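Structure first, sequence second, as always.
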């Protein structure tokens, strides 16, 4: 029973860690590769995770501006 609790807690932590990447994939964000990389490499820090979450929650801007 204790092992099941550890497995569930670990899965929940992994899901929470990759929430910005999951949101970017679901929204089909224009900068999802950037969000994935920030989340994977800098997500361990609160700043990196918040930056990835901020980018994931931004609206897609498909217009190209010069």
């Amino acid at each position: 029973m204790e092992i099941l609790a550890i497995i569930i807690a670990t899965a929940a932590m992994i899901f929470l860690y990759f929430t910005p990447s999951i949101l970017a994939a679901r929204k089909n964000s224009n900068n999802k590769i950037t969000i994935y990389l920030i989340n994977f490499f800098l997500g361990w820090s609160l700043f990196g995770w918040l930056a990835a979450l901020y980018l994931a929650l931004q609206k897609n801007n498909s217009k190209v501006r010069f």
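Margin note: The longest helix spans residues 2-17.
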